[in-house]
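Retry 2 of 3 after timeout on previous attempt. Resubmitting structure tokens to design endpoint.
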């Protein structure tokens, strides 16, 4: 740390992303990316003429993408704010709305919520998941803080129904409820339609998972137009050109190809069920997931040891040291071929543990 670093940030622990190996040779099941390429329509949209236009700034309103999102979800364009990945829009939301009221979130969830609170000086409280790693909305009733819930929840994949979210939103109209739907397309139901009914609800989504565009960095929020206007004020005070020209076109093209979206998400759901069943047969405890990953633990090996052993075998999964899920590994639902390799390697590792 240099002597010039702001003293109020000296204890800041940044978010640690999953490993992105520079060299190949790994079966990569650690960062919840899609095993499928983007829609063929994306490639068509990014022709040579579009690349030549990169000399020009992008549209600050991302109108092509914004209008596509509005049509897809049946919401007004002025209720949408686009961003450079959903992380950026989450940062804008927390900066815009949480300094005075604070923020509440689960003790096991997406790590960036706590990081953003510390970065922006926002007070926060954590609400423990129950013994089955589920969110009980009754634990959030009566809280004065704004609430953020990842649904399905990051790290666990556990999903709560729309009725539970509706309960939270309606219980206290003076409190903001933010629903992070990064994984909702893998078996959940979006609450975006509720944004037309409640002016204290914000919904965040990303194109990184179900749209196979993690590298394009596209996120967005949907909320009441007044809330959207507040977040735009933050955006235009930070980076008006936050989405590049190619990402805007790629996002719109991906939304237009519903057939490809349905096909690939269905395949991931099928692969998730195969992975879950296979792990259980091997003696794993698997948390019921509606995301494109599963969280699993095995009594014979610690989470850390499984992570390191799999890495040695050329398979990357995610391990979160310390805390309640230290004994678990999080496994992205990859292709059938990738999962076959994972299961084979796990069998070798567990057999070795038995013989040790």
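Retry 2 succeeded. Sequence:
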């Amino acid at each position: 740390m240099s002597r010039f670093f702001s003293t109020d940030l000296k204890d800041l622990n940044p978010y640690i992303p999953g490993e992105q190996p520079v060299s190949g040779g790994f079966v990569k099941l650690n960062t919840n990316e899609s095993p499928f390429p983007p829609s063929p329509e994306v490639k068509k949209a990014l022709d040579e003429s579009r690349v030549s236009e990169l000399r020009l700034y992008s549209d600050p309103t991302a109108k092509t993408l914004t209008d596509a999102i509005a049509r897809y979800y049946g919401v007004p364009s002025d209720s949408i704010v686009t961003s450079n990945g959903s992380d950026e829009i989450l940062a804008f939301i927390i900066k815009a709305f949480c300094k005075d009221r604070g923020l509440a979130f689960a003790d096991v969830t997406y790590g960036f919520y706590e990081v953003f609170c510390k970065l922006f000086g926002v007070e926060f409280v954590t609400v423990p998941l129950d013994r089955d790693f589920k969110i009980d909305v009754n634990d959030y009733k009566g809280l004065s803080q704004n609430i953020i819930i990842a649904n399905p929840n990051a790290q666990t994949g556990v999903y709560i129904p729309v009725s539970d979210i509706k309960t939270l939103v309606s219980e206290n109209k003076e409190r903001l409820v933010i629903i992070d739907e990064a994984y909702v397309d893998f078996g959940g139901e979006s609450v975006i339609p509720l944004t037309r009914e409640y002016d204290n609800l914000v919904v965040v989504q990303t194109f990184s998972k179900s749209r196979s565009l993690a590298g394009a960095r596209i996120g967005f929020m949907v909320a009441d137009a007044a809330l959207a206007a507040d977040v735009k004020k933050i955006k235009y005070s930070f980076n008006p050109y936050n989405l590049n020209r190619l990402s805007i076109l790629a996002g719109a093209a991906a939304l237009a190809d519903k057939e490809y979206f349905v096909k690939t998400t269905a395949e991931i759901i099928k692969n998730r069920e195969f992975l879950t069943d296979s792990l259980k047969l091997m003696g794993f405890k698997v948390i019921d997931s509606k995301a494109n990953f599963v969280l699993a633990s095995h009594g014979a090996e610690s989470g850390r040891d499984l992570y390191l052993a799999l890495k040695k075998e050329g398979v990357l999964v995610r391990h979160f040291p310390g805390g309640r899920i230290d004994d678990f590994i999080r496994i992205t639902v990859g292709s059938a071929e990738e999962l076959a390799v994972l299961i084979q390697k796990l069998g070798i590792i567990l057999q070795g543990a038995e013989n040790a």
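Attempt log closed. The CA atoms of residues 160 and 339 lie 27 Å apart.
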